[in-house]
Every structure is written in C-alpha cells, then in structure tokens.
Amino acid sequence: MNVRRRISTAALAGTTALGLVTLSACSGTSSAGEDEGGGRLDVVASFYPMQYLAEQIGGDHVEVTTLTRPGVEPHDLELQPRQASELRRADYILYLKGVQPAVDEAIAQSGVEHVVDAATLTKLENHGTDVGHDHGHEGEEHADEEHAGEEHAGEEHDADHAGEDGAGEEHGTEAGGDPHIWLDPVKYAEVARGVGDSLAKADPDRAADYRKNTEALVGKLKALDTEFADGLRNTTTRTFITAHSAFGYLAERYGLDQHGIAGIGPESEPSPARIKELQSVAEQEKVTTVFFETLASDRTAKALAQDTGMRTDVLDPLEGITDKSRGDDYIAVMETNLAALQKALGAK
C-alpha cells in the first residue's frame, strides 16, 4: 500500500493562500464549504467506497466531495494543496486508514472535528497473497456470526464514538490489517451502520433520516450477501487467481481460495518463484481464469494466463468507478463480480 509521494507539511501550511479553491470531485457534487449547499453537511470522502457510503446514507442532506478522481489508482494518490484545503473546510471526513498514506497524513493535520476512519468500524484481518476458505466461513454457515451481531452494531459504535477522535486504536491498520473491507458485503454493512451513527452525531437534527437511509443500505447489502452465498455455494473449483490480493475478505466469507499474483498493494511485483507457484496452483486446482482489474496493469495477469492456457477476466476491487467499470455503482459492479466468479469457478 505504498504511495509514491506524500503531501508535505509545507504544502499543507501553504493552503491558506489558495482561498476557496474548488476541487473537481468525481461525484460531480460541489465543493465542501460552499454556501449554496442549502444547509447540507459538507462531506469529504477519501475514495469511492467511502463516497458511496456517504452518498447513500447522507442522501439529500450532504454534499459529497471525493479526493480520488475517476481513473486514479487510490494507492498512488498524490494530494494537491487545494485538496488539503478541502479537508480543512469539511464538516465531516470519511476515510479508510492505511489505503492512502498521503490522505492519512493530511487528515491528521486538518483539524476537522468529525473525522471517521472506516477501519475502526469493523475488525481487520491479516491477509497475504493467499487466503483460503479454511480460515473463513463455509457454505450456509458463512455469515451467521456476523449477522447475529449486526442488530447491536449501532449501539456498540455509539459507545465507541463511531470511530471519531482516535477510536481506531483497536482495529487500525498499523498492525498490517487488510483494508479491503468493502468487498465483503457483511463487513461493509457493519461499516455502514457506524457511518450512519457518526453522521447522526455530526448532524443531530437529521439523525432520523440518516438512520433510515442506513437501514435501507444495510438491506441492500444483506440481499447482495445472499446473492453471493447462493451463487457460489456449488462450484467445480473453489480457487481463483487475481492480480491484486484485494479479495481476502470475500474469499473467507464465501469459502473460496484466493491466490494473488501481487500482494495487498497492487504495485508490488511477483517473483519468478511466485509465478511458478501460481502455475502449479492453476494445474492442481483446475483454475480456469486469471483475474485483473481496470485501474492497474494487466500485463502480468495476461502473461500468466498465456503461459498456462487460462483465460482472463475482470474482477473489480471497486476502488473507483470509471467508464470502463461494469456497472455504475457499488451494487452493480459487485453483481458483475459475482457473475465473473460464477463463470470462472464453474458454478452449478
């Protein structure tokens, strides 16, 4: 998850000279801090999975700006001084610590009262390039424990201040936790509940609407979870190979084996020994497909597929929505991911 360049302290200090410079947001909404917001809460989201939560839960009561433009690989984001200015003027910031160190640093210096780290709203796991279903949830038992705890998630987040003001010490990513929590609908729903609670605290006059919107989103995510559980229950193989090891939580949730060419960060390069190991996995487990993604290079994935006679397909880690995305929002892209997995795994 290394970012090539980080915003400097000097750049942050110089932002006051820029005035109210607007940020071109990927959501198409106006910049944080503008008076024409009609009393809406000015929300800054770090990248698409956080933007989606803020928009779905905030509804008409929020103006959402995202720091990561369409087509930009979030891990490589280089903040501009005007974006640091956006952060300073926000009413509420939603981010995921550990994905974008440049953003983490800028947020720490923003001075904004309502800052929520999504990593504090669920439990992170340590995942490497390989994640097996033996470490996760099998078949119809895939989500019982998680679902059983959801009804009380909001109360727990209230007690923990919904991830604000340093409440992330318990789950933070400093210990090496995998941050790709949004690719597990159950974990994403847990995060959504925490976001709903925190928005209600930041804007108590509209708390009822935020909670209503949260329940609507959680309902969609529960339905998506059911689609995945049913759609992946019976397959010819349980193993898939992907360019970027982003799908560890998804693999655990639905009893699959993920083998990543690269590690948690998509910029890492595999060794010749790793390529040889993947060739062996493909042969032994009857893997049919090497998955790649739209925001990172597909060169290694296609080379591996050519060497082993496998086909390639897209499995989207949903770090951003572009014109090339197979869907226009989180739910739609996740459903196309399900279809791609069903085809690759030989769903019956």
Automatic annotation (TrEMBL):
An example of a Pfam family matching this protein is ZnuA
- Keywords attached to this entry: Signal, Transport
Q: Where is this region: Disordered?
A: 126-181
Q: Does the keyword Signal apply?
A: yes
Which terms under GO biological process does the entry name?
Answer: metal ion transport
Which first-to-last residue range defines the signal peptide? 1-32
Molecular function per GO: metal ion binding
Keyword Transport part of the UniProt annotation: yes
Where is composition skewed (Basic and acidic residues) in this entry?
126-173
Per its UniProt record, what InterPro entries does this chain match?
Answer: Bact_metal-bind_prot9, ZnuA-like
Which top-rank group of organisms is this from?
Answer: Bacteria
Family that this chain belongs to: Belongs to the bacterial solute-binding protein 9 family.
Name this polypeptide is given: Zinc ABC transporter substrate-binding protein
Which organism is the protein's source? Streptomyces spongiicola
